Amino acid sequence: KASRRPAPRLLNGCVPLSHQVAGHMYGKDRVGILQHPDGTVLKQLQPPPRGPRELEFYNMVYAADCADAVLVELRKHLPKYYGVWSPPTAPDDVYLKLEDVTHKFNKPCIMDVKIGRKSYDPFASSEKIGQQVSKYPLMEEIGFLVLGMRVYHVHSDSFETENQHYGRGLTKETLKDGVSKFFHNGFGLRKDAVAASIQKIEKILQWFENQKQLNFYASSLLFVYEGSSQPTTTKSDERTLTGKFLSRGQLSGTEVLEHNNNFHVLSSSANGSSVGRSLSKMYARHCKMYSKKHHSQASLRAVPMGQDNGWESVSQEHLNGNVLSQLEKVLCHLPAGCQETAEVEVRMIDFAHVFPSNTVDEGYVYGLKHLIAVLQSILDS
């Protein structure tokens, strides 16, 4: 592969945020987000009144002497805040120093979803309201908008990205499939990540249902989950995860190979269309195996779901490196029940339009509930 030029370093070793999926981009817009070597991001303050309003919000929530239980609880759902920072060469440029929520991930899959029935605040001009409504007329009815996503595909070791136009193109009919794309790694649907995301959103919803002091407009949820296969054995182990899987017993006969809806593999047929197949035909009853002494003759057999779409029965001796590699990647993405709960972060971001209130934020609550319903339908399908 041709060597890529390193990203230009600026501002004490910072670089433009490489995996940003939405919002103001550094170098493209007048303000943007930078990645700091210490595991934080620097978000340049927007022009007034938006920038000062967001700064005021962070200072209020993270005030050292804050005794408001509602705000203290809110901190759990935000990136950590480390104050403001300005470069020595440009002291008038102010940056919010925030936790990089993606920092701990190897291959972070990221989605930015704007929440609420209105993407404009109560003080917006009629021109601004018209502009925002025209961007996504369905916002009032759907209650959220996918602003962008970045999804890691295991088989190609690459990321697929979608920008704001992708989300704006989603209708009521295509919304479910449009959101589910974020959880599809090229092999199958990461239902573990979907389930973990629902749990995180429900906690945020609980906070919103119990507070009447703030209303959020044009604010987003940032979703992050680990896209790469995490090795479960060390190099010193002679047997790989797949080897252990195969060696524990012969998998043949329909008694063992019962269908499991939790995981589907996509394979390309001759005409290029994707055909959903159940990888879990190779295991059954949540990883329960039938062992035999002579595991060297273990075989995999699956009942074809269509012409030329079935797995052939293969002996362990005939699993070449390529098949073994592909199978191992898939087995690292088994659904919940065969692996631990997915590592997922869901954080609230973008607070340039947060205002004091004395009522429940119905618009945000509506959006959260509909998003949970869509994710639940993806999980149940």
UniProtKB/TrEMBL annotation:
GO biological-process terms attached to the record: inositol phosphate biosynthetic process
Any single Pfam family the record assigns to this protein: IPK
Transmembrane intervals: none
EC numbers, comma separated: 2.7.-.-
Cellular component annotations (GO), alphabetically ordered: cytoplasm; nucleus
Keyword ATP-binding belongs to the record: yes
Gene that produces this protein: Ipmk
Keywords linked to the UniProt accession: ATP-binding, Kinase, Nucleotide-binding, Transferase
Name of protein: Kinase
SUPFAM superfamilies according to UniProt: SAICAR synthase-like
Catalytic activity: 1D-myo-inositol 1,4,5-trisphosphate + 2 ATP = 1D-myo-inositol 1,3,4,5,6-pentakisphosphate + 2 ADP + 2 H(+); 1D-myo-inositol 1,3,4,6-tetrakisphosphate + ATP = 1D-myo-inositol 1,3,4,5,6-pentakisphosphate + ADP + H(+)
Entry annotated with the keyword Cell wall biogenesis/degradation: no
Alphabetized GO MF terms: ATP binding; inositol tetrakisphosphate kinase activity; inositol-1,4,5-trisphosphate 3-kinase activity
Family that this chain belongs to: Belongs to the inositol phosphokinase (IPK) family.
InterPro entries, per the entry: IPK, IPK_sf
Highest taxon, organism lineage: Eukaryota
